[in-house]
Amino acid sequence: RSVQVAPVYAQEYQSYMLGVQFLGYEKTRNPLEFVQASLYEVGYCVRSTFDSFGMLFRRQVKMDEAVAGPVQIVTMVGETVEEGREEGPMAVLFVLSNWILLLSASLGIMNLLPIPALDGGRLLFLFVELLRGRPMDPEKEGMVHMAGMMLLMAFMVLVLFNDIRKLL
pLDDT value at position 21? Predict the structure, then answer.
């Protein structure tokens, strides 16, 4: 398939915009195609999450533009559902399914980062214990995880503040 995209200048935003429109969904012919298409979508979401991390670290995207908290996610989902209503309930279901997939993949990857208080932080401690050949002191490990939890909570407050600021 080929697609031609031409940006249109939007006075409202004072910039060129690209429009995307839902043109229906494609039915799979058999369960194997369904599984194959599903795996492709999951892989795409995982790659997109890693690509986004790369863009953040290379400073191609600003942190406040790339990171969305619960308030902004609900706002974006609501806007997407409103736009999809014009195309019918199947379009809304399709869009919501894609949102759920993207959020699940992103949260799964974030949880595996080697940050104390997350599962990835615990895996890091297990790896260190494997290399040392003896277990870590549970009290010291607990303190590291507590510090990580405090940093995560501070980050969550910052993201929530940023979300609310964008609404105003």
Answer: 54
